[in-house]
Amino acid sequence: MDSYSIALNFEDGVTRIIDCKAGEKVLDAAYRSKVNLPMDCSDGVCGTCKCRAESGSYDLGDDYIPDALSEDEAAAGLVLTCQMRVTSDCVLAVPVASRACKVGQQKFAATLARIATQGDAAVVLELDVDPAAAAPAFLPGQYVNIAIPGSGQTRAYSFSSAPGERRISFLIKKIPGGLMSTWLEQAVPGTMLELTGPLGSFYLREVRRPLLLLAGGTGLAPFLSMLEVLARAGSDETVHLIYGVTRDLDLVLVDEIAAYARRLPNFTYRTVVADAGSRHARTGWVTDHMPAELLHGGDVDVYLCGPPPMVDAVRGHLEGLGVTPRSFHYEKFTPATTTSRFAA
Ligand code: FES
């Protein structure tokens, strides 16, 4: 391999993906890409360039001093970018905002290709990226802001497609009177849209243990992207998805989920409908159908994308079970007129 791809995820959720040549130090690769990562000595002495490796393999060498990076820090995944040489694609969490590294938000254009209506619940929006531009690079789970033509406003949507595709897709909840929903009703293929991103700290980390994925409504989107990445990688890790919705009609793209159960040997899922009048096999809340065995005694990484009350309910449920997962990543979204997202 001549070069590797390094995703730099800044504190404010902005992500920039750079190319790092084999044998090149990450700090040098970043500056070559005009990303001014924090640095001072560039010699393994000051510790200013410390970041956290979220995934990937690398060599830290032995030319730095323990004051800059202690053994415990290195064991915990902290790295010095001025020393680090990667031996695979990597994701690095950079503990400063993108602006501090002179990284602006990236914009790109895409053309409306297809709108696939999912009953009155949602639509799948498919866009084709400009053929002259590179396919958008992002981490599975991240989102972009889409400018709604003529409105001067943007809305945030997670990619439901996998990184590296020229056709990108999004699962969008239909909201009567909502800005995007209203625009989609009369949108015509070929319309150019402006997107800003990728953004967000909610993305799939290196898979080292079982995963529990919790989707609320159109919070399913980022998990479709993650599942596609896992399937392409041939993952055999244990993965369980609980997909909860309000009404029967809100259960969309279940065939796509079922297809992943065929492609991923240890992937299972269940659907849950909150409506007490539903005749679905499982009614109630996601937490009503989350038995302790899905938590593997805490040796599990939990990912949740759903409305704020769902995050609180899952937190309370985990506390009630007395289980602390190895990690708990979540993204709260409010599919209202003003879209806001909070990731952790
Ligand atoms: Fe000083 Fe890396 S810049 S240790």
Q: Explain this structure to me?
A:
The protein is α/β, with parallel strands linked by helices. The protein folds into 3 domains: 3-101, Ubiquitin-like (UB roll); 107-199, Translation factors (Elongation Factor Tu (Ef-tu), domain 3, Beta Barrel); 211-343, Nucleotide-binding domain of ferredoxin-NADP reductase (FNR) module (Rossmann fold, 3-Layer(aba) Sandwich), CATH 3.40.50. It is 16% helix and 34% strand. The protein has 6 helices and 19 strands. It has a 6-stranded antiparallel sheet, covered by helices on one side. Strands 16-15-14-17-18-19 form a 6-stranded mixed sheet, with helices on both faces. Strands 2-1-7-3-5 form a 5-stranded mixed sheet. Helix 5 (254-263) links the parallel strand 15 and strand 16 (267-273). The longest helix is centred in the last third of the chain and has 14 residues, at 308-321. 38% of the residues are buried. The structure holds FE2/S2 (inorganic) cluster. FE2/S2 (inorganic) cluster is lined by residues 39-49, 68, 80, 82.
